[in-house]
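Could you join me in thinking about how sequence relates to backbone shape in a protein? We need material for that, and I hope you will provide a protein of your own picking. Label the sequence line and the structure token line clearly, so we can match residues to local backbone shapes. Would you write everything just below, so we can both look at the same thing?
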Amino acid sequence: MSAIILDGSIVHYEALGRGRPIVFLHGWVGSWRYWINAMQVASTSFRAYALDLFGFGDTSRDPSHYSLEKQADLVNRFLVEMGIGKVAIVGHDLGALVGFSFIKQWPTSVDRIMAINCPLNYDAVNARMRTASLSELVDWLGTRAPETTSALADASKADPQAVSASMAGLQANNLFSEVRNLGVPCLFVYGLNDPSLTIPPQESDILPQHMHQINLDGTGHFPMLDDSLKFNRLLTDFLALDSGLSPRELQLKEEWKRRVR
């Protein structure tokens, strides 16, 4: 286990590979652990980092650090302390919101972001996400597959206050409207079987030209676990795009279009 001390708090992270940096940010249910397979794939060409956010996994619990802004500041201080420059971010629900909060504050530090099952507003989140216990959410959103059970083993470590604080931040701020015109290339990925949120309509005119949305059939709240081969192919293609290029270029590849049908 790797850890770094930031302002007296322990921040747990793991890293693999060499090359341009990628930061994986987990969601409300789980920890860095469910990124292991995606990190292994990305690490063949990139330096992949996965963090436990404040209140999750093996990172310190401190309610004063649970807001989306404080979680984004954690990411920033981690990058500064580690001497990491411009990054790609891969964030899942909460992690995507933290990524957007980071972009809002440090837009020139992000090369691109993949936002997975990210609610664009508070009303898009199923009420059960706000009221159920973490163990109930694991049963509801995960599968019975042994590999999924193992990947979500850290869910019970989460501080419920960290979940509620970030939900309050989502309710108070429309992050999407604040970052949509900053020009950072963004790929929204949704599992069509995810019961935790209302998936936005897949219409290109809703998003600016530097943003794109792809819905994955046969996957739910954890696309990276439900169909790791499909998810990792999409991740690899997204990361392979030239810097600054819109993820809409992905739909020009007939091979990729066949893959996601």
